[in-house]
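Q: Please design a sequence for this.
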């Protein structure tokens, strides 16, 4: 077989978040994002990949999410105890929708309260841990 009669392998090339295949039209590839999570009271930041769990990233960063009772009785991130409550100061639109558990638990609380264990981060966000429910003046 000569060089000209051999079929060349089909290669995919990634260019500017598009997969350009030698055999087809360009197709979109999934975008991988990173997010900056800023913990206001602790003055710390964490970098997370899109879709990261807020509770996991807080613990990895050394952030204490729990009050005394929560430290003794937290459920380990299953959304059952409600002790990992956080207040979202900025970036609420960059989080996953509230789960049914959160909807029930925060029925009479501000809309920006979330359970860290039930929250997935998809973009930049600023978080207040251990919210008191009082308005800041």
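A: Design:
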């Amino acid at each position: 077989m000569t060089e000209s009669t051999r079929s060349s392998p089909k290669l995919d090339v990634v260019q500017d978040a598009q997969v350009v295949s030698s055999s087809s039209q360009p197709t979109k590839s999934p975008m991988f994002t990173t997010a900056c999570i800023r913990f206001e009271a602790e003055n710390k930041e964490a970098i997370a990949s899109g879709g990261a769990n807020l509770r996991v990233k807080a613990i990895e960063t050394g952030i204490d999410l729990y009050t005394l009772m929560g430290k003794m009785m937290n459920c380990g991130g299953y959304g059952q105890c409600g002790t990992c409550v956080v207040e979202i100061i900025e970036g609420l639109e960059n989080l996953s929708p509230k789960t049914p558990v959160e909807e029930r638990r925060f029925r009479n609380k501000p809309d920006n309260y979330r359970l860290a264990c039930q929250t997935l981060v998809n973009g930049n966000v600023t978080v207040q841990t251990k919210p008191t429910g009082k308005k800041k003046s």
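Q: Thanks. Anything notable?
A: The radius of gyration is 22 Å. Strands lie at 12-15, 18-21, 27-28, 34-39, 44-49, 52-53, 85-90, 113-115, 120-121, 125-129.
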